[in-house]
Design goal:
The chain is mainly α. It contains 12 helices and 3 strands. It has a 3-stranded antiparallel β-sheet with strand order 1-2-3, with helices on one face. Helix 4 crosses helix 8, helix 6 crosses helix 8 and helix 8 packs antiparallel against helix 9.
Length: about 230
């Protein structure tokens, strides 16, 4: 599958192939390219702006009426680096990423910061090439699950809170393990435990591994601070 197959599957036209290809050029590749190329950082800037307005509009029009504060918090979670990297992985954008030899060898194709930036540059290129309707077709896919149950989105990052609490008081290591997956393949439920030095301190369930980990971290954090 190529990026063109991806766009075709989403019903998105492409008029300027060079512009779309440009979105996948990482700065490390430019230094090794046989011909002069520009990296995708300018498109990343454009994509960031487009995501801010499109995600804001979706939150504003959501059937559940959210306050300004809630919309700000939800948007921050929906366009943070971790979320953007997840969107890239969902669409398998990193399969088409052009990286320098060293960056490739050092795991750049899976590095969160790189593939989060890639999603922004991809959005920027699609917006410039075929407009906001095409961008919304992409967002329909990557935001579908979270928007179906938006209020369950963990605004509080309990994984970070737990890590900070543990590190402030000890040198214990924190780890997360999936212990069970139930339900059909198109709607699984994950059960996760969080361990401190191999001792179970919290249990969580969720419709994704990430949500279950947050619930497990919340369970452990609330027990520890009592």
């Amino acid at each position: 599958m190529t990026q063109w197959d991806l766009l075709d599957s989403l019903g998105i036209p492409y008029n300027n192939k060079k512009l779309i290809e440009h979105a996948f050029v990482h700065s490390s590749y430019v230094n090794e390219a046989p011909v002069a190329l520009e990296d995708n950082e300018r498109l990343e800037f454009m994509g960031d702006a487009v995501l801010q307005i499109t995600v804001s509009e979706r939150l504003f029009k959501h059937p559940d009426y959210f306050s300004e504060g809630d919309m700000t918090l939800y948007r921050a979670k929906l366009v943070c680096e971790e979320a953007l990297a997840d969107y890239s992985r969902l669409l398998k954008l990193n399969d088409y990423l052009l990286l320098g030899t060293g960056e490739e060898r050092n795991g750049g194709r899976q590095r969160q910061s790189i593939i989060a930036d890639l999603f922004e540059s991809f959005i920027g290129a699609v917006y410039l090439d075929s407009g906001i309707d095409s961008v919304n077709k992409i967002l329909d896919v990557v935001l579908k699950e979270v928007f179906e149950d938006l209020q369950s989105l963990s605004i509080t990052d309990y994984k970070s809170k737990l890590q900070e609490f543990i590190q402030a008081d000890s040198r214990k290591s924190v780890s997360y393990d999936v212990i069970n997956i139930t339900g059909p393949s198109n709607a699984p439920e994950f059960e996760v435990v969080v361990k401190l030095d191999d001792l179970i301190f919290g249990l969580g369930k969720g419709t994704s591994k990430k949500k279950a980990e947050q619930q497990a971290a919340k369970d452990a954090f609330q027990k520890l601070v009592k």
